[in-house]
Amino acid sequence: MRIAELEPGKEFDSVLLVARKELRQGGRAGFFLDLTLCDATGRVPAKVWENASALSERFEAGDVVRVAGVAETYRNALQLRLERIEVVSPEEAEPSEFLPRTKKDLGVLESRLAEVGKSIQNTHLRELVLGLFRDPGFRKRFRTAPGAKDLHHAYVGGLLEHTVEVAELCERVAEVFPELDRDLLMAAAILHDIGKTEELSWETAFEYTDQGQLLGHLILGERVVRERADQVEGFPEDLKLRLSHTILSHHGTGEFGSPKVPMTAEAIALHHAEDLGAKINMFLGHMAAARDQGRRWTERHWALKRSLYVGGAEEEAAEEESGED
Amino acid sequence: MRIAELEPGKEFDSVLLVARKELRQGGRAGFFLDLTLCDATGRVPAKVWENASALSERFEAGDVVRVAGVAETYRNALQLRLERIEVVSPEEAEPSEFLPRTKKDLGVLESRLAEVGKSIQNTHLRELVLGLFRDPGFRKRFRTAPGAKDLHHAYVGGLLEHTVEVAELCERVAEVFPELDRDLLMAAAILHDIGKTEELSWETAFEYTDQGQLLGHLILGERVVRERADQVEGFPEDLKLRLSHTILSHHGTGEFGSPKVPMTAEAIALHHAEDLGAKINMFLGHMAAARDQGRRWTERHWALKRSLYVGGAEEEAAEEESGED
Amino acid sequence: MRIAELEPGKEFDSVLLVARKELRQGGRAGFFLDLTLCDATGRVPAKVWENASALSERFEAGDVVRVAGVAETYRNALQLRLERIEVVSPEEAEPSEFLPRTKKDLGVLESRLAEVGKSIQNTHLRELVLGLFRDPGFRKRFRTAPGAKDLHHAYVGGLLEHTVEVAELCERVAEVFPELDRDLLMAAAILHDIGKTEELSWETAFEYTDQGQLLGHLILGERVVRERADQVEGFPEDLKLRLSHTILSHHGTGEFGSPKVPMTAEAIALHHAEDLGAKINMFLGHMAAARDQGRRWTERHWALKRSLYVGGAEEEAAEEESGED
Amino acid sequence: MRIAELEPGKEFDSVLLVARKELRQGGRAGFFLDLTLCDATGRVPAKVWENASALSERFEAGDVVRVAGVAETYRNALQLRLERIEVVSPEEAEPSEFLPRTKKDLGVLESRLAEVGKSIQNTHLRELVLGLFRDPGFRKRFRTAPGAKDLHHAYVGGLLEHTVEVAELCERVAEVFPELDRDLLMAAAILHDIGKTEELSWETAFEYTDQGQLLGHLILGERVVRERADQVEGFPEDLKLRLSHTILSHHGTGEFGSPKVPMTAEAIALHHAEDLGAKINMFLGHMAAARDQGRRWTERHWALKRSLYVGGAEEEAAEEESGED
Amino acid sequence: MRIAELEPGKEFDSVLLVARKELRQGGRAGFFLDLTLCDATGRVPAKVWENASALSERFEAGDVVRVAGVAETYRNALQLRLERIEVVSPEEAEPSEFLPRTKKDLGVLESRLAEVGKSIQNTHLRELVLGLFRDPGFRKRFRTAPGAKDLHHAYVGGLLEHTVEVAELCERVAEVFPELDRDLLMAAAILHDIGKTEELSWETAFEYTDQGQLLGHLILGERVVRERADQVEGFPEDLKLRLSHTILSHHGTGEFGSPKVPMTAEAIALHHAEDLGAKINMFLGHMAAARDQGRRWTERHWALKRSLYVGGAEEEAAEEESGED
Amino acid sequence: MRIAELEPGKEFDSVLLVARKELRQGGRAGFFLDLTLCDATGRVPAKVWENASALSERFEAGDVVRVAGVAETYRNALQLRLERIEVVSPEEAEPSEFLPRTKKDLGVLESRLAEVGKSIQNTHLRELVLGLFRDPGFRKRFRTAPGAKDLHHAYVGGLLEHTVEVAELCERVAEVFPELDRDLLMAAAILHDIGKTEELSWETAFEYTDQGQLLGHLILGERVVRERADQVEGFPEDLKLRLSHTILSHHGTGEFGSPKVPMTAEAIALHHAEDLGAKINMFLGHMAAARDQGRRWTERHWALKRSLYVGGAEEEAAEEESGED
């Protein structure tokens, strides 16, 4: 039974990933286990009240476990009371399959991106982009990487989804502003976040790698792009420079980690298109969670530093009606 | 002869608007007149070396004048040496026709915007938008207003041009993120800057009105939208609130004059789409000026606080070639 | 028995408002209810250890309840152990009467404000101010509204109290600086925060309304003032503009929500007088709480980002003595 | 003839202070002298066109000079064309008498301040304040010191004028908030800026002293207050501490030079009252200059970073009329 | 048994200082005591599960207690379960001896500092420095003071250790930049933080004094230095000014509490050398704690606002090997 | 005759570099040439009053010219009146030899740096550093590069001088804090700014290259270091990562261009040591200029945003005397 299918008051028997594990003081037995479990359909808190100290030594966060017990409601939200828990060996279950996952079809997204890549007219840029995606190792990592550790598109496939969104926005930007170098903008849109495949790891959880933390995806991504461009014969130096600059400056300011601010029209276009895509994803994700709980306002978002307005059933109904007449 | 047609070393006889007038100390006669003249095709500095004090009393900035003299080169740029200058009466020449003007066709832009307005499905929003544009006084001001005093789209018709660009970007945003309320987003895109018709004046120059300076276009625009919405029968209160919020928050933060930060998905979408459109216009305009002068880097932009990279003939040639093989 | 009268170790039987309700895990029974109760004399934490899950479904935050039990001491502060709890119907008890309330007399404050209003010489401003307070609906809301959700004057009647303080400070400001337009300053002082009657709700707790959160009291207040001014015959446009500007800019900078910074002498005067009144209220309130607990320093104040110095009995005694000789 | 009495087109013969002197390239003779001259009634630009190099060696900025010539108009403002210039010896003319000077009566201001000092009930604070003003050297410097180099109250007597204004505002603050320690607040109001008598020099111009620049008036003033308090027998230590803290923190934040933020109610009260007084002085002074020139908006103020709205004759007339009916 | 000697699973009987005491709700008995105990070798959490309410009244944070019980492991860290606890009278045990303490030898540090003092050639500065350290009261406080409440060098002897480090860095700075006034720099290095002996108290915990909080160590230290300099005959005024400025500006900016930014070469040198010494101490201390727990990354540091990279056994081993060939 | 040897009132005949050239309006002939000329000993303003328009076409900024005329004084500073000017061909004179140049001996600095490099014990780091300096092309650029365009060490040889200073400071840092990895710190100190050899050009002036402006020396330097490390056999990956991080983070924060803040002890050490070295150089250079002009305070420094205190002859004399007794 997957998490999205659990119901309060019902028994369950599921295979889930342990996302967080804490042995805490409290409960009748002195100690209890406080867990967060997840699969591709969601996350749920869980408690083990009996025999917690001993059980705690048998598994760790990142393990896949088979659990059984009863689903309860606590503060209007689902919580599992575990009566049995046992580790499933990595051979039987791939932890990464239990992580949150884009709701979109990865194959469709990949085709969409390939299409964009092929629309690039400049042969050097096209060869750079297509060549990179011919590399099976890269392609595999790119297709499953999350878009971030916990900010936006923080789910398996999120990087690909985000990249397609940014590329689609840039297509329109290039139409509205024909003075832009469309080829450079589209290549940069596709490549801007490839450093995330090295910045993050997502085997059993979304984490930063050491080099991700110490260097960051801008540096790691630009390094790959530079090396690839050096291998494409006759790639103009000025174009390499513009491409490197576009990737390194796409966070917009030093405050957000870009060593240089955007100084070309394509760089400013990518920065804003990327920010637009990321921010709307953050808003929609945060609002969906609140809407599921029937709230008119979301909780305060730690990074956005604000609550978001969801509104309620009455208004929406009223609005729909008025939209029909 | 229009400014774009003047050539160094040639005589001229033109009708131009005085954009700036200063009586300065210097020259052989003790005083000279230092002017900036403009028409719809551009701006040019001009000097009057003889009889400056007396001439200075005959006209003011904002007057249209007939001037004759010789075009010279000074520091690689055109400069006029005026030998004759006389005021043209307002009946003969409308000053606003001498201000810089969008290169796009106003009629085409208006049709494009009307199309977007008609694509709104929600009857209240559609009626609000279309009703406003049926008001001939508003429509006339909206069609000629500049987009800003001197930052982006600072030319007659700039507000309309900017509004169309933002609306077109938002169309794509609504496609990429179907969770957004397209009708609200498109209505807000069309209405977001209408307060500029009251914030600015552009009879003889681009200036702030008193209420523009003291209240600003966000407040002035929201006031109009609110009054219009109150006149549309059955306009849902929640929708009025969302629309007002979207307009008031579209500058993103208090630092840029929004009394509230965006708290709905449509508000964040409009903010970023608007910023993207405005910034690219600033970049392209600033780079065009430098490219005309054959410079590889622009001068430092006072608001962007950076120079922009234009690059040069060699690279572009090289790039095009390499793009062909 | 009111909260201010409760004593540790004594039994009680009181009617109180539930300000906060949480069902938490812990205690012998697995769950307990963690409450904050309040009436006009103060707030007190309370616990229900028995039968918490079931009781939890019978009432919500915002309900008035009759409770009985024993008052205890926990970490040097009073805490109630509830043994009985039952809901009181809204007919029997008006929730808003249990909210914290100014210690000052509302009637006296109202008279004081009316006096200030009548001292305005300019007939348009006087008519605007007095007309607004003749509206019984507005007057009722204005008289009971809190000054803020939780920052300063956060109690029933706080808005009126704050308004009187600011008006009294402005009277002196106008004396010290006779160049100021006293009428404009006094009208603005009276009207500056009237938007809070729409920004906040205080039926069962101090909360933001949707429009309060999305538009804010500056916008809501200026809208009312503008509409009222439009109804006063012959109200000069320039005076409307100055009044709107004074209200919209009274938070001083965009960072604090003003879409424009103060640009007239009256606007800067109101901003600083208002800030002075609000800050002293925050300081005095925060220090009073600490003084009651016998502490020399307050806890760190979340918004002021500092602890405040209260000092202690020794010094005060010493000081008084030394002040007498 | 004093500067306020000069008229365009008329000859003059005046004794003035040289506030600024620059030998510049230009004019028919290759060089000219560009001066700013001042006396207690104002400042005026002046030019010497003949024999500038030689004349330049005969006097310096800070000298008093007798000048004769013709008053002209340049860019709508008065400018002197000097035909004769000769130095006046310091014995004949005290430079400081030519500096700008408060329009108020210094004797009246001093009496007002003495009154406030005597109203202090606490004997230690009263003795400290009155003792300081019994020191004739201090009193003389305090009575003539400017309030700042060029920000607010930048004229002889400005410190005294500012101090009286702040003290008068604090009197009302203490009435509105009776919880405040009135004696401490009034003493601090009187003493808060006494360090300016050591921070600034105003013999021939308003300048910083070395210690003013390197230590600042907060440190210099607190040092004097501390030493004085140490000499008052029995002055309570806690009161010394509160007084020192109030003076050191009165700029409000580290950004404005206070080593500590205000942490007592009296300190926050003084900070805001002082800021209010200083800001209104800045506004009124800046607006007066623009009003004299018939402008609706002031020039941008370098420290306030904004233009101020003065408005014009029409509105004022309209306002007065409407105020009469 | 000292804290560094405790082992999980073993019984203990130790004399320790109570650094923190909280009576909390939970556990089988309804309440338990949650303590932090410390001695010069470290800190450890402890719990009392039985009879907590009654025991809680017998001692306070800051008391020295004799405790016995069993050491356990909780979340990979040591935790004590106390079975007996009794207060030790202050006569028997000096609380300050149980506070964390520098690992360096205080005598060696003092000799090192004396050496630096004697190397000063300027007689006034040397006399000022050496005279201060001849004062036994000052010397005693200086030798044991912590370097800060909880940021860097937060242990007994930390001030002395930090001062020696800064002085040693400044010795090299003066070598590399011989243009600097070595004597002034070395004197300022020795004296820069002496105000901490009055800003902090460390009898039973590291706390701010009232004057430490309200005035700060920059003000307190400069006051002492100034008084001492006034007592040294013939001490040049300009040198006093430079020394005061160096001390007051050594935090670099107003944001960090300096009323003036550094304006001499010696002041900027001291500021940066001091910052360097303090920051490296913070890094090394924070990393040591993580290394002890076998972590590759530290927890996020509250003041540095980042995690630090420790790295792991593998890399170090690899590195050492590779370093050998 | 070199610039340092010119004297007011004397004729000269010199070979100098044109650092700046402007054709300006003014003077008797309508136009004059306003130049800045320089050689390795300094910079001097110069004017050409006759035949300026024609002469202006014969040379450009960056050319070496032979000039003759008379040295004059203008506003207390030297200025040249040119009577003859002719271009010197690049074969005859190397422009870069006329740029400002370190006063130190380049050979001595290089030996010092080589010594530091050889003191590195870790074979991989030593090989990386020494290998780089064996590359004659790199070594030549490194030895002559300026340290910056115009901030600190802005003279030929400035990069080498700055690098030696930072390395010497780091030697002491490693002594004071033996927990640091001395080898990593010393290697990073030597390599931290090598990207400046690609960021800047100094053929005829100090300028940014395109890649310098668009990518910056942090990115360019890390790229070189990374490539070199990849070529050293067996270079541990973790060490590469730490070295890259140290270089990229050495500006301390994103605001100053580092994509990551320092997260290791060596990185924070290098950042502060580098900042210390750069700031003292800025202070000393700016103060020397003012001291040469006999000023007690420097002009406001554009980047430091402050004036610096130089002080005067009296104090220094007094100080020296008092230092002798």
Question: What structural keywords apply?
Answer:
homohexamer; 325 residues; alpha+beta; 5-stranded mixed barrel; two-stranded antiparallel ribbon; 12 helices; 7 strands; elongated; disordered C terminus
The tally of strands of chain A reads 7
Reading the helices and strands of chain A in chain order gives EEEHEEHHHHHHEEHHHHH
| Beta-strand percentage range of chain A | 15-25%
Helical/strand content category of chain A? alpha+beta
Helix content of chain A: 40-55%
**N-to-C CA distance of chain A:** 44 Å
Strand sequence of the main sheet of chain A, in spatial order? 1-2-3-5-4
**Largest protein interface, residues of each chain:** A-B, 52 and 52 residues
Radius of gyration over C-alpha positions of chain A, nearest whole angstrom: 23 Å
The largest β sheet of chain A comes out as: 5 strands, mixed, barrel
Low-confidence stretches of chain A: 315-325
Oligomer: homohexamer
pLDDT averaged over residues of chain A: 90
Number of helices of chain A: 12
Shape of chain A: elongated
